[in-house]
Amino acid sequence: MQSFDFSDVDELYREIILDHYRSPRNQAELEDADIVSEGVNPFCGDEVYLRMSLDGDVVDGVSFHGTGCSISQASASMLTEAIKGKSLEDAESLYFLFRDMMQGRDPTSEEQDRLGEVESLAGVKNFPIRIKCALLAWAALEDGIRAHHRRTRDGG
Ligand code: ZN
Question: How far is the CA of 57 from the centre of ligand 1 (A)?
């Protein structure tokens, strides 16, 4: 269950995915996180734990750790790079964009620019059981942002 058939994935994309899997970014655990969330996919045994610190509504720090298949961990690593410095709103819209792509909608060239390296996971949509792996960290991101909004609304 841990293996992923990369034979249908474009070579450049494969390199990007494997690079993030082998050398995941943003592993040093962030202290004083404002948002902490996690995602678990029992099917693969994938686990992702996200931590984010905020400056206003901008993500100024992010870290993750996790275990699991190459797709889940590479996707989490890409996520941390993709949302750093973005507003929560932009981070969330990137999630929706990525989710739409995983569900089969081809991104426009402007959207491809916004996705950056994340677009390298596009080929995963052809492997339906792997889509959950690719989305795991992103769903955790969305959960964390929603919980944060609930907290700040309740507190204000
Ligand atoms: Zn997986």
Answer: 30
